[in-house]
Structure formats: structure tokens, C-alpha cells
Amino acid sequence: MRLKDKKVIALIEDDFEDLELWYPVLRLREEGTTVDLVGKEANKKYVGKYGVPAESDKAFVDVDPNDYDAILVPGGWAPDKLRRYPEVLAFVKHMDEYNKLIGQICHAGWVLISADILKGRKVTSTPGIKDDMTNAGATWVDQAVVIDGHLISSRRPPDLPPYVKAFADKLAEQ
To answer: Which CATH number covers residue 132?
Structure first.
């Protein structure tokens, strides 16, 4: 298992896009990665947009980003909530500062915008937040997956296979 020594934070909040959380989590776990679901509260059940539940392993306050190799931000409506937590913004800024892998898909770009890390970056997202991304200083492109250094972005659920493959491959390189 090529990713057995890797640890990833998967952020969670109600109304996450079910596939955009679970597809990467399951694929990374399949390759041996420890993926912790991290939310405002530990051991809390969060519910996705389509009703799929996920229980957090840890609370924001219990996590030290130094202990992790990467962070995943799912889309859905959860990013609009996640970006309001100072701890989440601190995690994303930390990962960016230390060139640790950041994965974002769909509306997850909102979290990166609020963390103020997109200036000069090449990214993609759901077209619905294209203006938000460009207003934050990013160059937005309409591609299934965009890799800019340690930042991997994707548009929507149909892009999950190439997105998660790119994320896993980049994680293996670190």
C-alpha cells in the first residue's frame, strides 16, 4: 500500500457533497492512508446534501496540522460553513505555508478564498464560483483537474476519478 504512512484531514460539516467527501476518503483509505474526518465537534454525525451521514473522528481543536500530510475540502454547501471557522482557515494556511497537499473540489474553493491563498494560483471549481475564484486573484480554467504545485482542484462529482488519482499520486510523491 503506497500511502500507508500518510495522514490526511478531511474537513466535514453538514451539507457536504456526499460523493465529494466519501469518494476521496474511501479511495485514500483503500491505499492505506489514515484519513481523519474533522469537524467542529468530535464523534458528531454530519449529514450530506443527499442524506449520507458521516461521523467526525476529531474536532478542529483536537487537530494539529503538523501531524498531517494533506487536507481535503469537499464541496456542497459545507464550504460556506467551514470557511467561517478560524481553525479551518488556519489549517488551510498552514498546509499552504508548508507546501502540504491541499485538495478542493466544487464549492470548496470558498474555503481557500477565505484563507486568502489563491492569489496567483491556477485553479478550477464549479463554474458557479468562477467569479469568486478570479476575484480572489486566481486564474480559473475549465478542466477536470488542475494541479498548481501542492494545490489540486477539481470541478464536480463526474471529475472525481481523475481528481482523486491526481491527489493520491501527488501524496505518494511527498
So the answer is: 3.40.50.880
